[in-house]
């Protein structure tokens, strides 16, 4: 009898510890997802325009799941210490629902990361950047978002185009319709700027003289933050779920061992 | 006096057998990386190409003629019968389709001290270096539509078209052609693709997506199976224990009754 008592106590201790970890990880998940949703790099308009912004949906789910995990872990600790069958049953059922939501978030984040290829951003940039004739308000909103984001990206990261400035030369674009190739082989923001925000040498920039135009592409500046976002949500969520799986199995076993 | 006459003689001889093997060249690709573009071509100015024809104390101008390669079948003459260079414009030749048009005129570049290309790195000198070293055909997008424009118009070229260029040396006082280069090698402007043709399909799934999806699906399945197993065992257990307690209470009743019977 004493041995099984000891065993139960050890199981209780382990479950309490497991729930503490789940609670703290839940808070961490909430904080991380709030950080991603706040979009520190200002890249959301690009995803919104491709209608492919599901990594943000995954982060939103992560915020609420993290908070739910924290609340449920407290319930779990109380239930384990009191050895209350009802509390633990409620805990298990709610945890399973939360588990399902978190699983959805992880899978969404990692699946939609796969869609964010250079060609996607290239096509969107060519079709939307400085597009002059927008069809409706939604189109106008997306076009303005894309234009502002690209202008900011090219200025801050000293880059041009997705793969390079040759993107503007190889493809026709909404930009090309409005601006002649002789004056604007590529947008002005592709030129190296001086302190006042005007090109250092406009002829050098137009001709492609090294040092007067940005010769590298912006894809790294876009994909870096987006990868961090998607993998942060997906893999951290996955780790939490693996741990939660063990804790839940232990809780179910414990639940079956205590008497009413 | 004597040397002056000697120079003049050599000058005239030079004009008769001018070196005609030189052609206009595209500007150095390490300097002008974006060349040719959709509608422009940057050409090197004719450094040291006409030096054998230059006489001192005379002023010269260089004309640049451009034509589409298809026009060479129609006409590729840049002068009329009296060696006067043609005054054709972009509009008159339909953008070089019917024959050469005059795209530019500028002074003879200095052969003795050409611009140093390394100076391009200096922000203060780069404008001068570029202006002295090369000329951009197709640079002016507005002169075609400006009715007040009186100078030589250099409108943008057509995309995906082959052009040829020629430099002509002109004596500015007499207005007669003194020398010309050959027609340049055919230079083609860029061709554009439509962005509709860009394929945005991501291709195969990445490894992490497969790992996460498969492992999580298995874990969820195990959790649900475990949950059902434990709940059903708890239900069975409680049924079995309630049947047991009934049996036990019955046997207790029976055992209580039997001592009564035996005592009686």
Automatic annotation (TrEMBL), chain A:
It is found in: Membrane. InterPro entries: Tetraspanin/Peripherin, Tetraspanin_animals, Tetraspanin_EC2_sf. It is a multi-pass membrane protein. Pfam families: Tetraspanin (PF00335). Its main location: membrane. Gene3D superfamilies: Tetraspanin. Heterodimer with uroplakin-3A (UPK3A) or uroplakin-3B (UPK3B). This is Tetraspanin. It comes from Fregata magnificens (Magnificent frigatebird). The lineage of its organism: Eukaryota, Metazoa, Chordata, Craniata, Vertebrata.
UniProtKB/TrEMBL annotation, chain B:
The chain crosses the membrane at residues 209-231. GO terms for biological process: urea transport; water transport. GO terms for cellular component: plasma membrane. It comes from the Eukaryota. Keywords: Membrane, Signal, Transmembrane, Transmembrane helix. InterPro entries: Uroplakin-3. The keyword Transmembrane helix applies. Residues 1-18 form the signal peptide. This is UPK3A protein. The gene is Upk3a.
